[in-house]
Amino acid sequence: MKFAVVGATGLVGSVIIKVLEENRYFDKSNIIEFIPVASETSVGKSILFNSASHRVVGMAEAISRRPDIAIFSAGASTSLQWAKAFTETGTTVIDNSSAWRMYDDIPLVVPEVNPHTIKLNDKIIANPNCSTIQLALVLAPLHRKYKAKRLVISTYQSVTGSGSRGVNQLRAERLDMFTGQTRAYPHRIDLNLIPHGGDFMDNGYTSEEIKLVHETRKILEDKALQITSTVVRVPVYGGHSESVNIEFYNDFDLDDVKNILAKSNGIVVLDDPKNAIYPMPFDAEGKDEVFVGRLRRDNSCSNSLNLWIVADNLRKGAATNAVQIAAILK
């Protein structure tokens, strides 16, 4: 198998390579040719994969080498410009950007939730937004059992979700060395919270908040699910956190909820608050699992549950999920 990573020199691209090398989901011995792809400014650089050095190439050369699978992590505009050129040579594209997620004929996949949506002739498969992936993974088994009616979501999103610019801004501000050249946010992020993710729309919501609504409905195949969200950027590196309130149509047993989640693939329940055991982004960093805790009834509304979800947005929220999709395709 020929395997390409588009955006190989970026933050997510480097994690994709790391996940592939770990050999946990995808047998790297199946990769007979590894093709790192990046912008013209990075062409000619070397990237290590599987203890060997590989020259970074541009789009045209990568297409000419006809990879079997290409994972794109280079932004929506790049995906819209180049993805179909890859598919025309027989490549299956797994895209990390927002470019293709809401097309009816393109599957939006969390492998533990909806792998059945991938069809044999699909040549573009969309990877959901990072905050959507961890939400959907926890919500899906509960939705199947109790039927969710409404979600109220507040996200607390790591600076790594903004790529290297977000990380660089936080580090520079923390060292009092920020000069403004690498600004990712309209305000200071160190010692601050910014209720702003993506672009603001005419209705007052941001594009990141709207992604949570539409992507969750598509993954769970439930257009009637009522969802509202608020996205907040926070000064942490480790991952994204979410406070989620779920109103179900049917009543639930709290012990049953915990048991369902504990038995679900890819989920770790950390729920012993009296002993200060609950998910935190510092502990989730570098891990592939989605962590859930602070499970409790919402006493203000019938059939309602509060919970707290944390995951490394670069791994399960992007790279790991994409590699898991690739493992399905192989």
Question: What does this entry look like structurally?
Answer:
The chain is of the alpha/beta class. Helix content is about 30%, strand content about 25%. The strands form 3 sheets. A 6-stranded mixed β-sheet has the order 9-8-10-13-12-11. Strands 2-1-5-6-7 form a 5-stranded parallel β-sheet, sandwiched between helices. A two-stranded antiparallel ribbon has the order 3-4. The model has no long low-confidence stretch (mean pLDDT about 95).
Task: Say how many strands there are.
Answer: 13
Report Rg. 20 Å
Strand order of the largest sheet: 9-8-10-13-12-11
Please tell me what the overall shape is.
Answer: globular
Assembly form of the protein: single chain
Class from secondary-structure proportions: alpha/beta
Keywords summarizing the entry:
single chain; 330 residues; alpha/beta; six-stranded mixed sheet; five-stranded parallel sheet; 13 strands; globular
What's this, in brief?
The chain is α/β, with parallel strands linked by helices. The chain has helices spanning 11-22, 59-64, 76-87, 130-146, 163-174, 207-220, 254-262, 281-284, 315-329, and strands at residues 2-6, 33-37, 46-49, 52-55, 69-72, 92-95, 124-126, 148-157, 226-233, 240-248, 267-269, 290-297, 304-311. It has nine helices and 13 strands.
